[in-house]
Design brief:
By secondary structure, the protein is an alpha/beta fold. The chain is built from six helices and 14 strands. An eight-stranded parallel sheet has the order 1-14-12-9-2-3-4-5, sandwiched between helices. Helix 2 (35-44) links the parallel strand 2 (22-25) and strand 3 (49-52). Helix 5 (104-116) crosses helix 6.
């Protein structure tokens, strides 16, 4: 029997994320970013958070708004700066947020390793750069590697296209990005979806994230055509 909770709204879905939590947040820029869940986390007031995401927010909405609220102590990401990352840029220059820069492939693999129960792994990315300083290195078959450790989250906020009542998820094209690995790497996975359908309505061959990895689901219908989101 499914233990997935179908939340009545985004605020109920994120309830229980506490101060000091590590939160994995899906999205590649705006694609696949669970904006409603992020806004609910901001409204919850949880602070001293460590956020793991591909980037450090865009413009003034979503993840950027969470940073602007002063609720994030540290961000672990691959692309902290871009044309519209002024919120992060200002906080970092003022010494108000900590940054751990991780190459994108390493970021994904470190979360995948957490979900797979892998204790650590050797990777060639970053060898010989400042990103490898203080880390164990090893030469394997004539190539140098650096030891990387898994990234685990207390909670993962991800966005999918559709869920069934058992928590099985399917994604929409590139909005899939980090969602599947984040879902496996967190103690509690919360999915924002466009619609929830009955169990069995999704072809099992199309399921990307099995419901066993999902704890809570909230449906956020897309705005009607011509209506600003």
């Amino acid at each position: 029997m499914s233990k997935v909770v179908i939340a009545v709204d985004a605020d109920a879905a994120v309830a229980g994320i506490s101060d000091g939590a590590t939160v994995l947040i899906g999205g590649f820029g705006a694609a696949g970013q669970p904006v409603e869940l992020i806004d609910a986390l901001r409204r919850s007031g949880a602070g001293d958070l460590t956020v793991v995401s591909n980037n450090a927010g865009n413009g003034d909405e979503g993840l950027a708004a969470l940073l602007a609220a002063g609720q994030v102590r540290k961000i672990i990401c691959s692309y902290p700066r871009q044309a519209d990352s002024w919120v992060f840029d200002g906080l970092y220059r003022a010494g108000k947020i900590e940054l751990e820069l991780v190459p994108q492939g390493n970021l994904a693999e470190r979360m995948r390793a957490a979900g797979a129960g892998i204790g650590a792994f050797f990777c060639p990315t970053g060898v010989g750069t400042v990103l490898a300083e203080g880390k164990e290195t090893r030469s394997i078959d004539g190539r140098d590697y650096v030891l990387e450790y898994p990234i685990r989250g207390d909670a993962a906020l991800i966005k999918a296209f559709r869920a069934d009542t058992a928590g099985n998820l399917v994604y929409r094209k590139t909005a899939r990005n980090f969602g599947p690995v984040m879902a496996t790497a967190a103690s509690v996975t919360i999915a924002e979806v466009t619609e929830v359908v009955p169990a069995g309505a999704i072809d099992p061959e199309c399921v990307v994230t099995p419901g066993i990895f999902v704890d809570r689901v909230v449906a956020v219908p897309e705005p009607a055509a011509g209506v600003a989101s």
